[in-house]
Structures are given as structure tokens and as C-alpha cells.
Request: fold
Amino acid sequence: MSNLIEQAAQRLEQLRRAGATLPDVKPSQRLPGGGQTAAPAVESRRVDLNFEAMAAAGVLIPNGPRSLLGDQFRVIKRCLLYTSDAADE
Reply:
């Protein structure tokens, strides 16, 4: 039985023969000895949050002041965590 890399190489060759278009690997992505690196990581979108505006709108924010709503969420979270821990045992 062939290993996973050999199976992947065979599958790529099958796709090429079938006419599928495959991305080209740039020389900078090649490793010595003929291996190839993984595709470069895709940068995710950055989102900046305005915590001051969120707090003014009544949304709970990290490190915000204690509130009744925050305490209620903590109670619910503790129950959920306790239940999930008990289910794992």
C-alpha cells in the first residue's frame, strides 16, 4: 500500500490528465530535495471593535464594569461548563 503522499501525487496526476487546472507552485515554495511547502497562510480579515461605543449601547465588553446582566451570563456559563465537564467523564 502506498503512503499518503504517493496517493496524493497519483491523484494530482489523474486530475491533470483529466484536464483539471491546478495551481502552479512558485519556486519560492519548493523545498530542497524536491518537496514542496504548504500553501502560504491566508490572512483573515481584521475587525476593529469600538468597545466604548459597544458599552454605551449596553453590550457586555471584556474587562467592563460588573453588571446584573454580566453576572447572569456568568451563572449560565458555569452551569454549561459544569454540565459539559460531567458529560466528558
Remarks:
- The CA atoms of residues 46 and 88 lie 35 Å apart.
